[in-house]
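From the shared-data thread, chain only:
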Amino acid sequence: MKTPSDADADTFYATVKVFDSFDQVADASLYSPLPPGWVVGNADIVKSTQAKAAGRGKAVNMAGAAVIAGVTNALAGEEVAYVFGGDGASFAVPGRLADAAGAALAAVAAWSTHELELPMRCGMVPIEAIREVGLDVRLARYSASADVRYAMFAGGGLRWADGQIKRGRFTLDAAPPDTRPDLSGLSCNWEEVPASLGTILTLMIEPRGRFDDPRFVELVARLNALLADGAQARCPLPEGGPPLRWPPTGLDLLARVRRRPGDSALWLKLRLALETLFNAVLMWTGWKAGHFDPARYRRELVANADFRGYDDGLRMTLDCSLAQAQRIEALLAAARAQGVARVGTHRDSAALMTCIAPLPSRSDHVHFIDGASGGYTFAAMQVKADD
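Structure, as tokens:
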């Protein structure tokens, strides 16, 4: 494995290896350890299980994606390693960006807590604290498409940092209630995506030992082999993207993203209603507007979708046939019984998508996929129960 001894902390992320076949996700040789001085940020929704059970899955996912939007906007011009977790997000930045990233993170937490009424806890953990307990944070980059690369995290450090922040360590001071993060590009205008093959299956798998344990690597390989048949399991998004209706179900959430102190709620919703109508007409008709090409955007939307990744464990949200879902669940149940991995799965009838597209005319817009009624949150509960 690589060592960070000669790595330039400011340019490290750009030098991390990129792989373009998800079959390589468990290849430990692709992961590089964070350089000294780097910091891991983490945020999650308090009592997200209850919020999702109450039908607030779209709001929970919006809050999780807001962490990524808020931090990347605050660090404009910097490439940020981040991962979406459904009810939160994690990221890693060099020490020189830690203060700005922490301020943005605290602002998002205040916005989520007071605007969405979804209390969010957050914190920043130095890589040195993680290594003191014998864990690490290692990075790889997965090229989901020609335009988007997602960070993959391994080494156990992200999970440990999350647990420490939940215990009240490394937490950030609360921002004032009226603090507004820059959430430019964050949106949720698309509708739920019904399962087309049978069920939406969300799964999470964490190694019980090292992430390069041969038994765990074999488990990931067997799972990826099962997923090679796209007629049995695939990304939940259809070829043309999710359903789109007007007014969008997420119009109220979008208003909460865009609202600024002193804004009239009525006029803001009216403006957003007109804006989303204009965008919907373009999508329905395929008419181009300036540099924006709806047909191209729909193709990129599917190609760029973040429906699988690795952050101290494998996570996926898949559209599966019922038979394939049963085969996957049986494989994971056997791995749990053999002590290879902690596992969690959840079935949904539909998937949700939350987007960050600061400039829709560009091709690097990102789209986070989760199960509509529970997804990652409920799967994570099962993983934690395996501890």
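The CA atoms of residues 99 and 124 lie 10 Å apart.
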